[in-house]
Amino acid sequence: MPASQPRSRARDRNNVLNRAEFLSLNQPLKGNQESRSSGRKQSGQAGAAGAQNSNPKEWRQSQQLPEEDCMQLNPSFKGIAFNSLLAIDICMSKRLGVCANRASSWGGARSMINLLGITGHGIPWIAGTLICLVKSSTLAGQEVLMNLLLALLLDIMIVAGLQKLAKRKGPYDINPGLLDYLTMDTYAFPAGHASRAAMLSKFFLNHLVLAIPLRILLVLWALCVGFSRVMIGRHHITDVLSGFVFGYLQFRLVELIWMSSNTCQMLISIW
Fold first, then answer.
1. The pTM is what?
2. Which residues contact 192 (CB under 8 A, 6 or more apart)?
3. Could you give the residue numbers annotated as active site?
4. I want to staple 233 with a disulfide (CB 3.0 to 4.6 A). Which of 97, 113, 138, 219 is the partner?
């Protein structure tokens, strides 16, 4: 009898622990769990189907990720190289903008740098060319001056058109001046002063008889005009370099459409 009592007690204990109310404390019943999960799935599918049937356009938009959350996993090598060069250009241009404002490291020289930039502006050059054309009395001088006027007008129109297409802003938020608005030089790419300086220097080197020191000064003037636009924070380095390239191409274009002396005399007589 004493040995049979512990056995009966252990059997009773096992029977008690195997009851459903005690099993629910340790692990959920399989039947209840499956029924709950299937109910949730059915309710979720019914809700999604209802939302899709009610407004399928909104449901599709909700399924799409916003653009800022999407990641380009395989960017092209050209894209990486272009973005890297662009970042270097912006960084270097900001570092070289030492006269961008009065608080800059060379802020005291801003007026002098602006004066240097005015020497490459289109309005003074057009006005000076017209005055020299009125004063000129030789056919050769009038021919050169008329083609120079044509080159200046072409430069303004070409640069203004390219800037309207690119619409690139400068490294610093600097408002254009009155002369810039008159020549439509309101954006950064390409640099109008740099293209004009390169075109004028090449024009004078080809059509004027100058001594070697004057030729060197002319080239240095063009380089200084272009670099001054970076110093005042108006243009990037690539804007100035592209301006030099476009200035040379404009000179080549003027050489191709060069007006003869008879054509210049006809235009002068009409004027």
1. 0.69
2. 122, 155, 156, 159, 160, 163, 183, 185, 243
3. 193, 235
4. 97
